[in-house]
Task: inverse folding
C-alpha cells in the first residue's frame, strides 16, 4: 500500500533564511497514529503545515499517496480536490479555524466546497454532530462557545469532509480533563476505523496513550528519535536534551534527590 507521506531530506526555511525544519526523512504509512513532540520552536507545527500543503520544501521533497506535494501540484484542480478531501487539518487555535455564523455552517462549509449536494451535506453534518455529541451547539455562533466546545466544532468541521488523514496541532490544548478523555476516545475510534493521524503536541502522556509511534524533534529542527512511545520516553537524557522534561530537585531533611518532570503544557 502506498505511503500517505514520504519526506526525503525535507527542509523548510522562513524569510531571511530562518530554519524551521532541517533534513527530515519521514514515512507515514496508512492507518498509523504518529505523535510529533518537541520543544517550542522545534518545527512541529511547520511539519504539520508541510503535510497539509500549507508550507513547502525549501530543499528536499515531500510526496503524498505517491504524488509530489508542491505548490504547482496543488494548482491542478483534480489533485487539489482529492488531496483536500483526503487530508484534514485541525489547527491548534480553534479561533483561527472557525469563521462562519453558526456551528452548523462550520460543519457544512467543507462539504459544500467539495460540491456535494445539500441533502448529502445535511446528512454528514447530522452524523458528525451526533458522533461528537455537539447537536446542541449547531445553532450557536462560534464566538459564544467555550474553548472545549470550539475545539469539538473545529474537529467536526474537518470530519464532515470524511478525510482519510487527520493532522492535529496541539489537540489537547484548551480542553478540560473530561474533554481530553473524550478526545482520546475519539482517537481510539479513528484508529479502529483505519484513519491515519499525525498529532503535534507537548502532552507526552496524551501522545503515548493515543499513538503507537513517537517522533522527537530537537531544537535544531531535526528528528532525533523515532519509535514506540515506551522506548522513546525511556530515554531520559534525550528528553532532557530536547527540553521536553526538566529535572526537579526535592529535599527531605538533609537528603536531596533529583528526578525528571514533563513540562507543564505550553502554547506552541
Result:
Amino acid at each position: 500500500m502506498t505511503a500517505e507521506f514520504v519526506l526525503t531530506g525535507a527542509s523548510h526555511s522562513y524569510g531571511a533564511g530562518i530554519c524551521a525544519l532541517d533534513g527530515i526523512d519521514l514515512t507515514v504509512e496508512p492507518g498509523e497514529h504518529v505523535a510529533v513532540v518537541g520543544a517550542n520552536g522545534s518545527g512541529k507545527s511547520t511539519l504539520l503545515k508541510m503535510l497539509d500543503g500549507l508550507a513547502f520544501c525549501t530543499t528536499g521533497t515531500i510526496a503524498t499517496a505517491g504524488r509530489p506535494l508542491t505548490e504547482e501540484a496543488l494548482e491542478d484542480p483534480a489533485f487539489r480536490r482529492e488531496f483536500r478531501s483526503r487530508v484534514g487539518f485541525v489547527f491548534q487555535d480553534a479561533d483561527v479555524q472557525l469563521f462562519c455564523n453558526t456551528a452548523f455552517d462550520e460543519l457544512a462549509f467543507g462539504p459544500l466546497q467539495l460540491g456535494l449536494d445539500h441533502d448529502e451535506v445535511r446528512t454528514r453534518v447530522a452524523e458528525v454532530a451526533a458522533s461528537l455529541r455537539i447537536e446542541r451547539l449547531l445553532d450557536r455562533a462560534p464566538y459564544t462557545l467555550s474553548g472545549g466546545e470550539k475545539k469539538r466544532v473545529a474537529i467536526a468541521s474537518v470530519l464532515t469532509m470524511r478525510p482519510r488523514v487527520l493532522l492535529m496541532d496541539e489537540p489537547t490544548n484548551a480542553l478540560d480533563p473530561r474533554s481530553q478523555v473524550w478526545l482520546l476516545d475519539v482517537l481510539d475510534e479513528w484508529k479502529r476505523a483505519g484513519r491515519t493521524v499525525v498529532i503535534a503536541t507537548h502532552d507526552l502522556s496524551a501522545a503515548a496513550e493515543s499513538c503507537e509511534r513517537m517522533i522527537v524533534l530537537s531544537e535544531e529542527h531535526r528528528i532525533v528519535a523515532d519509535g514506540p512511545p515506551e522506548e522513546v520516553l525511556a530515554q531520559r537524557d534525550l528528553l532532557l536534551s530536547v527540553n521536553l522534561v526538566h529535572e526537579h530537585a526535592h529535599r527531605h531533611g538533609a537528603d536531596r534527590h533529583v528526578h525528571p518532570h514533563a513540562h507543564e503544557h505550553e502554547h506552541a
The longest strand covers residues 18-28. The chain has ten helices and twelve strands. The chain has one domain: 5-262. The two ends are 34 Å apart (CA to CA).
